[in-house]
Design a protein that fits this description.
This protein is of the alpha+beta class. The protein is built from 17 helices and 17 strands. Helix 1 (3-18) packs across helix 3 (43-57) and helix 10 (208-218) crosses helix 11.
Length: 462
């Protein structure tokens, strides 16, 4: 007996124990054996995360996982082309997308509209994160073509004990980067690197470029416009973001060590993070960081926990009700003209449904649940802040980046580091540096686009 069939036999026998209703008389649709080709990263991880639970509820649907690992055999420079060729060759019933190719596949008629299926089955979507549904519909031209069981997002984490100790007003929902960095400056900066307090920082060293990019991303700024393919970093808005970052680093309120953690036991990893060790007032945190904070309490001997607070933000002062730091990593849709539409819809319904959310609500390993009401807190910490702001995925820094040749970044990143380094060393003004970055960056982009077009034309004639 194969491993796949052995797993299935065990799961079917467990069905009545784990899911109420599995032992009831099955529907006619459930009695009809069917198969399903699902596109996913890895077969084993798929069954751990989704497949085992789905099979318990739907034992007559045989799942074949089409692993995307095969897409990356050898050197892949054009990921969009590789993805399209993979889908065309494998013809999966369920396609796993990201936000970028979701829009493209929906607009090109490559996906099955879900609205009709939702209405047909009276499928409840009311407690799915409304802002996420709204965004997915907007990306689908007003119609829904895919659902995501989880999403990722960030919020401002803060150490309540440090704020009380130093008499600083605690953070609030909707803080801007300027407010956050001004608050960070109110904490002491004396002491050595391994014992002092930091007002703000992240897990690793935060250079000026890193902080400026974070500020710019929140405010919807893009260094390269994907629609016009123009470098647009020499603007007043980018200058403001960089100046804010430079001032914050110069104030020594931001964590910016010379060396980062280079490997070792988990205890040492946690000890290398000032926020977890209670030496940082604020940081940007995610659901994964909540799990790290929980695990550190048992991994570190004589650990001293602190009261953790979480608020929504930072936000763009021009759009205080949205966030550009939210996205989905695994968005599932049904391929247009799939011969197994009903089975594919059963799968998507299940992994976005109440039963699945109830089981997965105990873990933060795969992100935040889109189905609301089942995971409202983790380890005693409310998750409300992650759901307060409306996601603006189109405004995210990465949105549309597939239009920009990867080779361009090989030239652009060193240019950015060099020019901003000259500003830090007082050898060049910020205005001059941004002007140089835009001019030389545009030349590099034009060259990369031309070379990509030439290669495409050459490949088409072979």
């Amino acid at each position: 007996m194969s491993k796949k069939w052995l797993r299935k036999a065990i799961l079917v026998s467990m069905c009545t124990l784990l899911f109420a209703g599995c032992s009831s008389t099955p529907s006619k649709k459930a009695e009809q054996p069917s198969s399903l080709k699902v596109m996913f990263h890895d077969e084993n991880y798929f069954f751990q995360q989704y497949g085992d639970l789905f099979t318990m509820k739907n034992p007559n649907i045989e799942i074949q996982v089409i692993s995307t690992n095969s897409m990356y055999n050898g050197e892949v420079k054009d990921y969009k082309k590789a993805f399209d060729e993979f889908v065309e060759k494998e013809q999966p019933d369920v396609i796993m997308l990201n936000q970028e190719n979701y829009t493209e596949y929906a607009s090109n008629g490559k996906l099955t509209e879900l609205d009709t299926l939702i209405q047909r089955d009276k499928y409840n979507t009311e407690n799915i994160y409304p802002a996420l549904l709204e965004q997915l519909k907007e990306q689908g031209g007003g119609k829904l073509y895919g659902l995501a069981p989880t999403f990722y997002g960030s919020a401002i984490f803060y150490n309540v004990d440090l704020f009380k100790k130093y008499g600083v007003e605690i953070p609030h929902d909707g803080m801007t980067w300027q407010e956050l960095l001004d608050t960070a400056r109110r904490f002491p900066t004396d002491g050595d690197e391994k014992t002092r307090i930091y007002g703000f920082g992240e897990q690793y060293s935060m250079q000026i470029n890193d902080l400026a990019q974070s500020i710019a991303s929140t405010e919807g700024l893009k260094a390269i416009n994907p629609d016009t393919l123009k470098v647009t970093i020499n603007t007043d808005s980018w200058k403001k973001a960089y100046q804010m970052a430079i001032d914050a680093i110069d104030s020594k309120a931001v964590y910016n060590p010379k060396d980062n953690f280079n490997g070792g036991p988990m205890e040492e990893y946690y000890k290398s993070q000032p926020f977890i060790m209670g030496r940082m007032a604020m940081t940007m945190g995610s659901s994964y960081d909540l799990q790290n904070y929980k695990d550190a309490k048992t991994a570190i001997k004589d650990y001293k926990p602190f009261e953790l607070g979480i608020v929504a933000g930072p936000v763009d002062p021009a759009a205080p009700d949205i966030t550009r730091n939210t996205g989905v990593g695994e968005l599932f849709a049904i391929r247009a003209n799939s011969p197994n539409t009903d089975a594919a819809w059963e799968f998507i319904k299940f992994i976005n449904g109440d039963e699945f959310a109830k089981v997965k609500s105990r873990s933060m390993s795969n992100g935040l649940l889109s189905r609301m009401g089942y995971s409202t807190e983790y380890d005693g910490h409310s998750l409300e802040a992650f759901y307060k702001l409306k996601p603006d995925m189109k405004g995210s820094e990465w949105y549309g980046s597939e239009k920009i040749p990867n080779e361009f970044y090989d030239q652009y990143r060193p240019l950015l580091e060099k020019e901003i380094g000259l500003v830090v060393d007082k050898k060049k003004s910020l205005d001059e540096a941004l002007k140089t970055i835009q001019e030389q960056g545009q030349a590099a982009l034009d060259k990369a686009i031309k070379e990509k077009a030439s290669k495409k034309e050459s490949d088409s004639t072979k």
